[in-house]
Design brief:
With about 170 residues, the protein is mainly α. It is built from six helices and three strands. It has a three-stranded antiparallel sheet with strand order 2-1-3, with helices on one face. α1 crosses α3, α4 runs parallel beside α6 and α5 packs antiparallel against α6. The chain starts with a strand and ends in a 25-residue tail after the last helix.
Length: about 170
């Protein structure tokens, strides 16, 4: 998850929560009084404390003396966005729905993702290219038709013969 911090009058800064070290994640959790899984869930929900804690710890890498109380962004200055891996997982799940219902086509899934992506992903260019790739794959699969049903295995009947088996040792 990427936290985008856009300070008033400044340029947007991107902070990738996946880059936190275990010790840093522990500092975030203690500081915001949440367990790490709660912090991660909070990032998805754009919880202000979770976002603030992550950004503060990552900013401390370059400004070790920065105190938590000194970093107090405005409530509208931070948002979260999906990183590339999270974006691809989301899109893959969406395209797996193609064909489940006749109304769920690759084109409809792609249209919905095109609408949702700009406000949800950190790297829009990557997201749009990935939608196009997955749409082409899904449309190619749609053209193949349904997979043929597997046939049960059959074996040849045992051969009956009057000959006896002998072994030579």
């Amino acid at each position: 998850m990427i936290v985008v911090y856009n300070p008033a009058g400044g340029e947007p800064e991107h902070y990738d929560a996946k880059t936190l070290l275990t010790s840093e994640a522990s500092i975030v959790a203690r500081t915001v009084d949440m367990k790490w899984p709660e912090v991660k869930a909070g990032l998805v929900d754009e919880d202000l404390d979770a976002m603030r804690g992550v950004v503060w710890v990552l900013k401390k890498r370059h400004n070790a003396t920065l105190r938590f109380g000194e970093f107090d962004p405005g409530v509208d200055e931070m948002v979260t966005r999906y990183d590339k891996d999270e974006t691809e997982a989301w899109f893959d799940a969406a395209f797996h729905l193609v064909g489940v219902d006749p109304e769920t086509t690759a084109e409809r899934v792609a249209t919905a993702l095109h609408e949702a992506a700009p406000s949800s992903v950190a790297d829009l260019e990557h997201a749009l290219a990935y939608i196009e790739k997955r749409q082409a794959e899904a449309e190619a699969d749609e053209g193949k038709g349904p997979e043929p049903e597997p046939q049960p295995e059959t074996s040849a009947p045992e051969r009956k013969t009057s000959a006896r088996r002998t072994s030579q040792t």
